[in-house]
Amino acid sequence: MSKKFLVGIDIGGTSIKMAVFEDDGTIIDKWEIPTNKDNQGVSIPGDIWTSLENKLKEHSIDPKEVQGMGVGAPGFIDSDTGSIYEAVNIGWKKNFDLGKQLQALSGLPVFVDNDANLAALGENWKGAGNLAENLIAITIGTGVGGGIITNGQVVNGSNGTAGEIGHIMVEADGYACNCGRKGCLETVTSATGMVRQAKEKLKDNPNSLLKTPLEKNGDLTTKDIFDAAKEGDAFSISIIERVADVLGLAIANVATIVNPSKIVIGGGVSKAGDQLLIPLRKAFDSFCLPRISEACEFRIAQLGNDAGVVGAAYLVKQKLS
């Protein structure tokens, strides 16, 4: 029987999402295993292969029928070698050879890329991208991730650091970022950044509706901010407008280089839908070259947590085509 199956893996700080696909992208099975970060994550490759091997047996799939394994991981990644330069949330230090280890364990071709890049590939294959040749994907959650596709291929750069949209500097003397610099885009426009701004400035806006959830729960969420804005809370509206303005400018600058037909917004904050998308599009249009703006469409991501494994599977198809 000819090889026809694909495996997609998305490694996160809490869990590892895994899926087996038919060649056309149909999911046969998907599941998760815990991310064991003990001893700097040394057991993760073995955990992945043990779980996958058991699942293939469960579905009576011979590993020889699997075309390859695509793997998304956080951090800076050399996609040519499959090595992780560093993944702080996992515990991997310089040049953890994830690809080589998985290949040795499984005997399969293994292709590794940044998790945000593969989420972009996944959305482009089976989600909001509709196989756009040129696409920008932004994931807004605890941080801000990004993936750029040009001429159908993920942009990696010289050492796997291209597309790190969340680390575009937007405030020269801004808030400290996890990357070690200050004022990165994610310090302003991530869920973490939005909540921080709200809490810092709430004392100057004592009549804001956000005072109630903060007192009740001891903290705020982006949902609190969007809910208060729906109720007409001027302070919450101002936070959303600032986020849209800063993010719109950053995306417009990237779009000037990429000239995309699609800009896909995903992550937890994207659940706000038009409440985010409408002011974001307005800001983008105000900063962008009109010809570039006319060519592109904003879409909310469709695949949710499946984007990473779908993109990882598609990476195999691309690499072997």
Number of helices: 12
DSSP, total strands: 12
Task: Classify the helix fraction into a percent range.
Answer: 40-55%
What are the low-pLDDT stretches, counting only 5+ consecutive residues below 50?
none
Specify the overall morphology. globular
Strand residue percentage: 15-25%
Let me know the average pLDDT.
94
Q: Biggest β-sheet: count, sense, barrel?
A: 5 strands, mixed
- CATH architecture annotation name of the largest domain: 2-Layer Sandwich
Descriptive notes:
This protein has helices spanning 38-41, 44-58, 98-106, 115-126, 185-189, 191-201, 211-217, 222-230, 234-258, 274-287, 290-295, 307-320, and strands spanning 5-11, 15-22, 27-34, 66-73, 76-78, 83-86, 110-114, 135-140, 144-150, 153-154, 262-266, 297-300. With 321 residues, it is an alpha/beta fold. The chain has 2 domains: 5-123 and 306-320, ATPase, nucleotide binding domain (Nucleotidyltransferase, domain 5, 2-Layer Sandwich); 132-301, Nucleotidyltransferase, domain 5 (2-Layer Sandwich). The protein has a 5-stranded mixed sheet with strand order 3-2-1-4-7, sandwiched between helices. The chain has a 5-stranded mixed sheet with strand order 10-9-8-11-12, sandwiched between helices. A two-stranded antiparallel ribbon has the order 5-6. It is globular and about 65 Å long.
